UniProtKB/TrEMBL annotation:
Descriptive protein name: DNA-binding transcriptional LysR family regulator
Domain HTH lysR-type positions: 1-42
Pfam families per record: HTH_1, LysR_substrate
PANTHER family in the cross-refs: HTH-TYPE TRANSCRIPTIONAL REGULATOR LEUO-RELATED, TRANSCRIPTIONAL REGULATORY PROTEIN
Single GO MF descriptor: DNA binding
Organism: Endobacter medicaginis
Highest taxon above the source species: Bacteria
SUPFAM superfamilies assigned to the protein according to its UniProt record, in alphabetical order: Periplasmic binding protein-like II (SSF53850), Winged helix' DNA-binding domain (SSF46785)
Family: Belongs to the LysR transcriptional regulatory family.
Keywords: DNA-binding, Transcription, Transcription regulation
Keyword field contains Transcription: yes
Length: 295
C-alpha cells in the first residue's frame, strides 16, 4: 500500500480510503494480504485489469485529442528499461539523437532483468522496455525487434588464434561468463547438443567488466552481439568472431503499456529506440543485402 501511495504521490490513508470505496463499488476485496507476497489481487481484480487499462487508454487518447509531439520543442523525461548490455550498446546513440533533434527531452536508462521488466512497465516506473519477447499472456504491447545472436569477443593477439575462431580453438580457450550467464544457458546447451563442453575460468557481474578480463588475456567471452559490438567499439584490442557453434537466437521485443500506443511522445521515442536496436543487432560478418552499396 505504501508503494502504491508513493507511486501516486498520495498519502497512504488516501489510497486506503480509495480502496475501501472501490471494494464497496465492486462488491469484492480486490486486494488481499498474503504473508509471502504482501498485497495480491483477487480473481475479480485480475479480470478487471485489462478492461480498466483499455478504458484508461481511451480516456487518455480522448483528452490528448490530436496532440502532436514536436521533439524540437517538447520538454519531457522518459524512463527506458533495458536488459543487461543494451544500455552501453544503444544508449549513446539514443542520447546523440536527442541532443541533435530533441534538445529538451531527456531519457533515464534503467537496467532491468527480463523477469522485472513487465511489472516495472505495468507500474509505469518504466515507460518503454526492451527485453526478450515473452510468449506468456501479458497486458503489455510488444513489438518484435529482431533476433539476438551471440558472438565471441577476445584479444586475438593475446590468445594466439586466427579469426574467425574454429570450434577446437574456441574450446581450447578459457571462458569468462558475464552478467548472470549460467552453465545451463544457450551456449552450453548448444555445446552439449554436439557432445562438447567449455572450461569456464571466471564469471563477472556486468558486461561492462568483461573487457578488463579479456584484454591481454588468453580468454574468450560469448555474449549477445549488441554487447560484443559495444565492447569492441571502446576497446581496440578486442575483436569479434562468429561463434563456431550454432547457438539459438533470442527474440527481442520493445514493450509498453497498451495505452502507450496512444501517447505521441512514447510513439516517437519507440521509433528512435527501435531503429538503434535493430542496428545494434546487425552481424558484422554477414554481407550487406544487394543494393546497399554506394552507387
Amino acid at each position: 500500500m505504501s508503494q502504491a501511495a508513493d507511486h501516486l504521490s498520495l498519502t497512504q490513508s488516501a489510497v486506503s480510503a480509495s480502496l475501501r470505496r472501490l471494494r464497496l463499488l465492486c462488491g469484492d476485496e480486490l486486494f488481499i494480504r498474503s504473508r509471502r507476497d504482501g498485497m495480491v489481487p483477487t480473481r475479480r481484480a485480475l479480470a478487471m485489469a485489462e478492461p480498466v487499462a483499455e478504458a484508461v487508454g481511451l480516456l487518455r487518447q480522448a483528452m490528448l485529442g490530436d496532440a502532436r509531439f514536436d521533439p524540437r520543442r517538447a520538454r519531457r523525461q522518459f524512463v527506458l528499461g533495458l536488459v543487461a548490455g543494451l544500455e552501453s550498446a544503444v544508449g549513446p546513440a539514443i542520447l546523440r539523437r536527442l541532443l541533435d533533434f530533441a534538445p529538451q527531452v531527456s531519457v533515464r536508462f534503467r537496467e532491468c532483468s527480463d523477469a522485472e521488466l513487465p511489472a516495472l512497465i505495468e507500474s509505469r516506473a518504466v515507460e518503454i522496455g526492451v527485453g526478450t519477447l515473452s510468449s506468456r499472456p501479458t497486458r503489455l504491447h510488444q513489438d518484435m525487434l529482431g533476433s539476438v545472436r551471440f558472438a565471441c569477443i577476445l584479444d586475438a593477439e593475446a590468445c594466439g588464434v586466427c579469426l574467425p575462431l574454429d570450434l577446437e580453438s574456441y574450446l581450447a580457450l578459457p571462458h569468462v561468463l558475464a552478467s548472470g550467464a549460467r552453465r545451463d544457458g544457450p551456449v552450453d546447451l548448444a555445446l552439449r547438443a554436439i557432445g562438447r563442453e567449455r572450461r569456464v575460468a571466471s564469471a563477472v557481474t556486468h558486461f561492462s567488466a568483461l573487457p578488463a578480463f579479456l584484454i591481454g588475456m588468453r580468454a574468450v567471452g560469448t555474449v549477445p552481439i549488441y554487447a560484443a559490438r559495444s565492447m569492441a567499439a571502446v576497446s581496440p584490442a578486442l575483436s569479434l568472431s562468429e561463434a563456431p557453434v550454432a547457438i539459438p537466437a533470442l527474440q527481442i521485443a520493445l514493450m509498453t503499456n497498451r495505452d502507450g500506443v496512444a501517447d505521441p511522445g512514447v510513439v516517437w521515442l519507440k521509433e528512435v529506440v527501435a531503429e538503434e536496436i535493430r542496428m545494434a543487432l546487425c552481424l558484422p560478418w554477414e554481407a550487406a543485402p544487394a543494393g546497399d552499396g554506394a552507387s
